[in-house]
């Protein structure tokens, strides 16, 4: 596994390039597979240096470790994301919101960690935890720090809380908030019960039950 970005000109001189030449000389498949985490610096480098054109023989497999940015300060990820300390350093994340039960998440000293115990089942009333989640999320926003929302897979529970926050703060409908999230995290999909609860929450916001004071612009 490659740990740090490597300029494409150095890749030509690397062991990876030597493997490509050896494969090509032997008459076999000359492609070389490079496995890396989806670290933002790697992704940015590949785009800026146009690796597909410069290194057509190199096939890059990105491991989904790093979270997806939903808002300027808010990220969505999985348990594996929450267990990867480089994520916190690279993305200036000081707040971790765990929306699940019994997940092993270890954070560095000084980081803020809140656990909201929720099962990913349709009958779980996740609405009851929204207010506590919103206060925690807003602390990160006001301190200009990144926050990671995660559950196990980062697709249902954490997405539900993120969607509810976006709905209230930006006065969006459920579907508008979910569409916004899916632009960053296409697989996001709350379970059917959570989808219904988000719809109920949308109706509550329309009736003026959102208590916007918690989410002021200050």
Automatic annotation (TrEMBL):
<dbReference type="GO" id="GO:0043409">
    <property type="term" value="P:negative regulation of MAPK cascade"/>
</dbReference>
<dbReference type="GO" id="GO:0017017">
    <property type="term" value="F:MAP kinase tyrosine/serine/threonine phosphatase activity"/>
</dbReference>
<dbReference type="GO" id="GO:0008330">
    <property type="term" value="F:protein tyrosine/threonine phosphatase activity"/>
</dbReference>
<dbReference type="InterPro" id="IPR020422">
    <property type="entry name" value="TYR_PHOSPHATASE_DUAL_dom"/>
</dbReference>
<dbReference type="InterPro" id="IPR000340">
    <property type="entry name" value="Dual-sp_phosphatase_cat-dom"/>
</dbReference>
<dbReference type="InterPro" id="IPR000387">
    <property type="entry name" value="Tyr_Pase_dom"/>
</dbReference>
<dbReference type="InterPro" id="IPR029021">
    <property type="entry name" value="Prot-tyrosine_phosphatase-like"/>
</dbReference>
<feature type="domain" description="Tyrosine-protein phosphatase">
    <location>
        <begin position="66"/>
        <end position="207"/>
    </location>
</feature>
<protein>
    <recommendedName>
        <fullName>protein-tyrosine-phosphatase</fullName>
        <ecNumber>3.1.3.48</ecNumber>
    </recommendedName>
</protein>
<dbReference type="GO" id="GO:0033550">
    <property type="term" value="F:MAP kinase tyrosine phosphatase activity"/>
</dbReference>
<keyword id="KW-0904">Protein phosphatase</keyword>
<dbReference type="Pfam" id="PF00782">
    <property type="entry name" value="DSPc"/>
</dbReference>
<dbReference type="GO" id="GO:0005737">
    <property type="term" value="C:cytoplasm"/>
</dbReference>
<comment type="similarity">
    <text>Belongs to the protein-tyrosine phosphatase family. Non-receptor class dual specificity subfamily.</text>
</comment>
<keyword id="KW-0378">Hydrolase</keyword>
<feature type="domain" description="Tyrosine specific protein phosphatases">
    <location>
        <begin position="128"/>
        <end position="186"/>
    </location>
</feature>
